[in-house]
C-alpha cells in the first residue's frame, strides 16, 4: 500500500501521540505541559500558531485516550471516535497546500486552537484508513513486554515491532539466546 505524504505524516504523528502516554515508552507523560505539546506539534510540521495552552494539553490528552481504540481490531469504536471528534471541533474540511506538502485536507483552520488542529488531523487520517480498509496498519507492538503503537507502512503489511523501544532487536536476541542455551 502506498500512502500519500499527508496520510503517512499524520499516521506517524498519531503513533507518536499514542506513545506519549505514561508507561508506554516512558514512565513520564510525554505531553504533560504546554511546552511538551508545542515541541510535539513542531516536530510534526503543524502550520499556524504553535504555542500550546493548558486547555490544548488537556484536549490532546483526551484525544490520546479516545483514539487508543484504533489499536484494537474493531472498526466501530474508531468510527464513533472519529464522528465525535468531528462534531466537537465543528469540522469544515478544506484543501490546503503549504511548505513541502501538496494538496491535502485540513478540517480546522490554522487559527483554530492547537488541540482542534491535532484532533482534525487524527480524525482525517483515521477516516482515510477506515475508508481504504487499512486500519490494521495501526497496531500494537508484537513484543510481549511492549504496549507501544506502530504504523505499518511496509508494502506487504509485515511490520510487527515498534521503533520506540528497539523491540525487534530485543525479541530476536532473546529468541537466539533461547535456541542456543538448550
Indicate the overall shape: globular
| Total beta strands | 4
Secondary structure class reads mainly alpha
Radius of gyration: 17 Å
Report the total helices: 6
Strand order of the largest sheet: 1-2
Q: What is the multimeric organization of the chains shown?
A: single chain
| Strand residues, percent | 5-15%
User: How is the main sheet built?
Assistant: 2 strands, antiparallel
Unreliable residue stretches: none
Could you state the order of secondary-structure elements as H and E? HHHHEEHEEH
* N- and C-termini, Cα separation: 41 Å
**Average residue pLDDT:** 91
Give the helix level as a range of percent.
40-55%
Task: Describe the model.
The chain is mainly alpha-helical. A hairpin with an 8-residue loop joins strand 3 and strand 4. Helix 1 crosses helix 5 and helix 3 runs parallel beside helix 5. The N and C termini lie far apart (41 Å).
